[in-house]
Backbone:
């Protein structure tokens, strides 16, 4: 997280020792929710995200390259996003015994 963003959050949500500790609400939606954009990736690249899971995307070279590309190329990001949505629309829901709950998310369970 960049220092300017961290300072803004600390001002919004001061620790109890500084008079804070009450119910503070921070709007993590910093753009218009009705406009599709690559702003999320711009925020991640700038270190302006609140969650470790988001900032972790910049901790490895391969995922950082994806973040940087998505932040810098809104038209390419939009095309990839649209293609992903179309692909997800083709995923059929498995019912009954047709599928399995994976014990490890990236591998099918071994037959027993």
Residues:
């Amino acid at each position: 997280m960049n220092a300017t963003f961290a300072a803004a959050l600390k001002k919004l949500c001061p620790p109890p020792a500084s008079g804070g500790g009450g119910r503070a609400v921070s709007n993590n939606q910093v753009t218009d929710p009705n406009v599709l954009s690559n702003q999320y990736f711009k925020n991640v690249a700038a270190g302006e995200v609140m969650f470790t899971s988001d900032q972790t995307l910049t901790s490895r070279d391969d995922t950082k390259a994806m973040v940087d590309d998505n932040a810098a190329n809104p038209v390419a990001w939009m095309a990839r996003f649209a293609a992903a949505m179309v692909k997800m629309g083709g995923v059929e829901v498995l019912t009954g015994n047709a599928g399995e709950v994976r014990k490890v998310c990236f591998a099918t369970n071994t037959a027993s």
Helices lie at 3-12, 39-46, 52-55, 61-72, 74-89. The chain is about 45% helix and 0% strand.
